[in-house]
Design brief:
This protein is an all-alpha fold. The chain has one domain (3-213). It contains 9 helices and no strands. It has helices at 3-6, 14-32, 45-64, 66-74, 77-82, 92-98, 104-130, 135-159, 184-208.
């Protein structure tokens, strides 16, 4: 497969938009019903399922459906990289900490981590668009950093939660993240962004496969 074609030009179709819209609506309904609130004596299973469930379903679909796999690998890598710039929105966590709405244990690594990923995304995108030497490494580093940011955010969020996993909880907890509208961040935005990272990494692996690096010779 030529490298230029392997990057992909497809954009999400109406089916994808419909699935994401239904997913968002489900998260909104579950949040409004208060189901993301965990019993203080039990782990927050609902919100953990909301975060881990979509990547698991994605993995099953990718392995079990050739059509879905082809769709994932055809998505425009430039679009997948560009959307990472929206991660700067996560900087609001730092502001919430300043107003004592979220603990620093969570707000600082999650907020500044999101700001860093969002700030680096345009540079990775420009390297990708211009096909600069090492552009794949730039995109790879961006996505690894983005996933590590989520690992840190989820971990510190649990350690500062109101449940039994809140071993480092102080006078402020991450309890507000289980209420609307903030619950849509762990209940929808985080798993959606994880899928974007996974899709990007799968495309990079495809590009680095021996058959993907073959460039078609010009006619004549």
């Amino acid at each position: 497969m030529p490298v230029n074609h392997a990057i992909g030009r497809a954009i999400p179709g109406w089916r994808t938009v419909a699935v994401v819209a239904l997913w968002f609506a489900a998260a909104l309904i579950v949040g409004a019903a208060g189901l993301f609130h965990a019993d203080p004596s039990r782990p927050p299973l609902v919100i953990l399922i909301a975060i881990a469930g979509p990547p698991m379903v994605f993995a099953l679909g990718y392995r079990g459906s050739a059509a879905f796999r082809d769709f994932v690998l055809s998505l425009d890598l430039r679009l997948l990289t560009a959307v990472q710039s929206w991660r700067v929105i996560g900087g609001v966590f730092v502001a919430f900490n300043a107003h004592r709405m979220l603990p620093a244990l969570f707000a600082y690594p999650a907020g500044y981590g999101d700001l860093l990923v969002g700030a680096l995304a345009p540079f990775a995108l420009l390297a990708l668009i211009d096909r600069r030497p090492g552009w794949q490494r730039s995109v790879l580093r961006l996505n690894i950093l983005g996933l590590l940011d989520f690992v840190g955010a989820i971990g510190t969020g649990l350690l500062a939660s109101d449940g039994p996993l809140g071993l480092l909880r102080g006078d402020i907890s991450t309890g507000p993240l289980t209420d609307l509208p903030l619950v849509l961040i762990p209940g929808f935005a985080v798993p959606l962004w994880i899928l974007v990272h996974i899709t990007t990494l799968l495309q990079l692996r495809r590009l680095n496969a021996p058959h993907a690096m073959q460039v078609t010779a010009p006619a004549g």
